[in-house]
Each structure stands twice: as structure tokens, then as C-alpha cells.
Design a protein that fits this description.
4 helices, mainly alpha, about 90 residues
Length: about 90
Amino acid sequence: MGPEILKFNWSNSFELWNVKIQDMFVQQGVEKSLLGREKKPMGMDNDDWEDMDARALRVIRLCLVDDVLFNIIGEITTAGLWTKLESLYIMKC
């Protein structure tokens, strides 16, 4: 999976965790999955997109404690899961 990332568990900073996950996505070449299917690169076929999205989704799930994972378990795309996490855990000012 690459560098060790502390699992997000509410007590650590979501913003810092977010940066580390996005850095990991860039290293693994799956960062475009955060944009959602509607932003799929023109030359990419659907199977490649589905594979990339599935890999990114699993990276996020593996970097969450069970209590957090329970709150997003129904999300089946990386973009959907990411949006849900942001809505739940980004500090509202």
C-alpha cells in the first residue's frame, strides 16, 4: 500500500489525513477517481476506470477505523465515499 498512514479515527486531524491519502493516490496513479465518473479521462475505457476507482476506494477503506468505516459503508465509488467523509468530518467554521 505504500507509506504507513495512521487510520482516521476522529481524534486525528481529518485535514492532515486527507492530504496524506491524496498524496498516496498520486503515487498510485488513482487520483482522478476522486473527481467522479463524469470526469473520466476521454481515452480511458470503462474497465480501466472501474479498476482505478475500486483500487482507490479500497485504499480509503483500509485507512479508516471500523467506527468511521461503518458511517460510509454504503458508498460504492471513490468520489461518493470522499464526499461523504468530507461532509461528516471536515471542520465546519
